[in-house]
Description:
This protein has two helices and eight strands. By secondary structure, the chain is α+β, with helices and mostly antiparallel strands. Strands 1, 2, 3, 4, 5, 6, 7 and 8 form an eight-stranded antiparallel β-sheet that branches.
Amino acid sequence: MSADEAVAELVTFSCSKEAYVYAPLPPAPSYGHRAELWNPDKWLKEVRVKVITAGDLCYVRMLDKDNGELFAECPLPHDGTPLTTAVEPVVDSSRYFVARVEDRESRKHAFIGIGFRERNDASDFAAALDDYRQYLRRKQEAEQMREEFSRLETAEAGGAADAAAAAGGGLDLSLKPGQTIRINLSSDQDQPPDQPPDQPPDQPPDQPDQPTEPPDQPPEQPDEPPDQPPDQPPAQDQPHAR
Length: 242
């Protein structure tokens, strides 16, 4: 069993009525295939058409109408190639398509025509192909976002490493094999007392600045004279003794 067959298959479309296979096809004009050139009343085989997905792969399968055996298979591209290289609508009808069928073993391919009896089947068939096209587009966008996120993560990690190297000056300060460090653990009593900076040891501390304003003056004296005793009546002449 191949890796493709090991993946669970999901049927996304199955026609309700039979469809018709046309082959061989006449050469297509420059503007595209035309169903009227196929002689639609003379088909090669009646089939059931299904669209089946298996993981990221998708196939258009034409099965025998009576026994359900595989008659032809059209693998759809999933590598970014347009789906119209595998299934292409004709230019003169919405019920007819051209499919590129391929043999599983020999990988030989050929182009055949598919015609649906019911117009609704043809519309559902085209919708199933478009759903697969949208799935591939979303998958590609997700991969691009994942690659962009990974690139930004790598750039941020490299920037952090460069910043750390710049902060350290790019110097290797680690000890080499055989190198040692001597540390002097002398007592604080052996050291002279600390002196204030830029101050001789015997100089007294700076005097505070003297105020520039004059000392307080006594309050000014009032201009009025001191209180006088109340006016006395004039002295009366005393009578002389006779």
